[in-house]
Amino acid sequence: MKFFRFSTFNEFLGIGYVTVVFIQTLGTNMSIMPDVPGVLGSSLAWTAAIQDITSQFRLQCFLRMSFAVEFALKLLAPLYGMLLFVAMYWISKLCKRLTLDRDVVIGTYGSFFVAFFISIANLSLKLFQTYEHPNGERSMISEPAVITSSDTWLSMVAGTSLSICLYCVGATAGIVYALYNAPTFFKDPGFRKRWKFLFLSVRPSTYWWVTASLVKAFFLSLTTIVFQRPMGQTIWLGTGLMLYFLAVFWFLPWRTATLLWLDVALHYLLAVLCLLMPFFVPANETELIDAATVFLMVCVVGIMCAALCVLGVLRTQSPSALRQWRLTYEQDARKFVEVFQVMNDAQLMADVLHGLVDVDYTLTISVMKILSASRRDGYDRNEHPQIRCGTRIRHQVSMSAREGAFSDEVPELL
């Protein structure tokens, strides 16, 4: 069994992915502001180039066409990229020395698609991202001259709906299908090459993490569709970012500590920006009352969370819960014994540790230190009755076993 180390180049790719997602999220936050201060508009105008790539192409500058035609051509942007990769593949077929692997080409296109999925989701839903005029009419945020009740807007509904089905629903369904079948087909070299971009930067135990990024993209794109008032939009954005923030802490999805730190730091900064957004919009009396109501609701939710934690702790002390934990510990202990009987060669263990990602390696070393300390202290239950209920030690060992640090999928995913 051969183990591979996560390369520096792949780590740079992961850093680039997290950074691109951050810039797209930042651009989405700025796009919902009705009035952007001059200093922000001039300093962060470049974020639109990544958050909405098609905004950089003004087709009407060199071809006379209606807005509906231009909008339809922009909706095809992801397909243009796909055609470009297809053309590169077939051109390489003509040059035997430059022949490209079909699965690698598909995987490369997929990596770009996922990296810019926030931009693609915004493009697909742009027609429905509107704001209200004082007279009750609604206009597109990206094109204020287009009223939602106009023939121009209505003529674009069918094309937009098709793009939503293709880019958002269809692509997401394909990715979820690949993730669902990954444990079964990952030993197939073609499958690994084709879908490598889904697993490259994440830990084996969280190989499905790309779905969290897709959900976040939908969440951001729906902001101006679900809510029309700035306060509701800010709460929606803040809630989504905090849920993602907590999920990163809970699952620790990234392969390296650098990626983990970067993702947490950038989303913390985005959460701070959400807190500052209400200061850019003057609030009326109604909005102040609504804000006070939301403030009280948040306080109540906080108290309820504390109460639920108390109930959860009490539940873990019930006889049935303790009995279930005891059975779990015994099963995990048998698995540990089986693993240690096989992993009794220092070189083999070194190869395994060399193939682990940062987070799994740190956890494995922590478990080793715990076991070593227990062995050195004798671990006699009769002499040390307080160890009889050493929940913390056994819980950490149990969690390590569930992570599957020594599973066969680890080398395959690296």
TrEMBL record:
Keywords: Membrane, Transmembrane, Transmembrane helix. It comes from the Eukaryota. The chain crosses the membrane at residues 12-32, 71-92, 104-125, 161-186, 207-227, 233-252, 259-281, 293-314. This is Uncharacterized protein. It comes from Durusdinium trenchii.
